[in-house]
Amino acid sequence: MPDRIKLLVTGLNGVVGRALRPVLEERYELSALSRSGVDGLPEGRVFRTDIADIDSLRPAFRGVDVMLNLAADGGQSSAEGMNAGWDSMLHNNIIGTYNVLEVAKEAGVSRVILASSGAAVNGYELEEPYRSLVSGDDVDLPASWEMIDEFAEPKPITLYGVTKLFGEDLGRYYALTTPMSVINLRISNCTPVDEATPGRAQANWSSYRDIQQLTVKCIEAPPEVKFDIFWATSDNAKLYRDNRHAKEVLGYAPQDGVR
Fold it and tell me: What is this structure's pTM?
């Protein structure tokens, strides 16, 4: 039987980390990097440190095959949501992302998966027809609309979205200049409760089992997937964040969606 993939995850205590943990723990040799620690993992596989302290990260990366970076400020796990303070986002989203990529390169990690965000394109929701698609009101919807794929013009309307775009471009740099594969996973609406709430989630929801499936497919993608960006969305009737690229490249097959 082949050895299980050694997977290091940051942000395992966050909303997305908790949604993913059951499948990651079952499928891989899981270790975690966290400031506050992680319950339920062997002591030797929990590294308590700050993602912005590059020297302290190195022990966690020894022997790791794939690294999944979920640590960030400004997302679902943040008290201030996407309006988190700049200093904290600089610390976690920019310096921290550089640090994990640089240390992963040094350690010979084969692939890094970066949690990006739908915040990269939230500006589309200021325009029609996307404004209506995410509205919580009873509005008339068009018969069809142009989908926004991973390579459409970015439209961030928060600094959080800007930091996530920085992470995508930094990942592209490392994929082009090192042997590492870097995959960016644009996570949409994934909340502490596994259901789509009224309003924006009706278009942007990602169920737990769909984001679990797509994350596994990113971890286990062939080496030829050297750099890419994928939308983590379920097949919602009002969907505008186009998940066809993940279906075509990775064989992603969403099982859920708001109809």
Answer: 0.95
